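Appendix B, record 7
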Amino acid sequence: MNASDPEANGLKPTTHLDRLIHEPGRLMIMAYLYVVEKADFVFLMRQTGMTQGNLSSHLSKLEAAGYVEIEKSFKGKKPLTMLRLTDAGRTGLREYRESMSRVLDGIPD
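Structure tokens (predicted):
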């Protein structure tokens, strides 16, 4: 058995994982958005513990990939940013979860 060959040890390669989702901050954002229809920016910032800039940066990447839709408006005179997963985002997270399950199932007890 070759110790440097993960598949020879029963491990599944991780090359098929969506690296955009795999980043912990983006994974957390997608997980929160997966369980709600929409969330506002401040709520998501509080839930994730991210700074405004960090959350904005991650959301921009997810939006560019077509995983998140960002809707900006005003509530009175205050800006309101609403976020939701797109159908592609929901599919992407489901596929990521299935891929991670296969990887983790390959780890021997």
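Remarks on this record: Residues 66 and 78 are 27 Å apart (CA to CA). Residues 19-101 form a domain with the Arc Repressor Mutant, subunit A fold (CATH 1.10.10.10).
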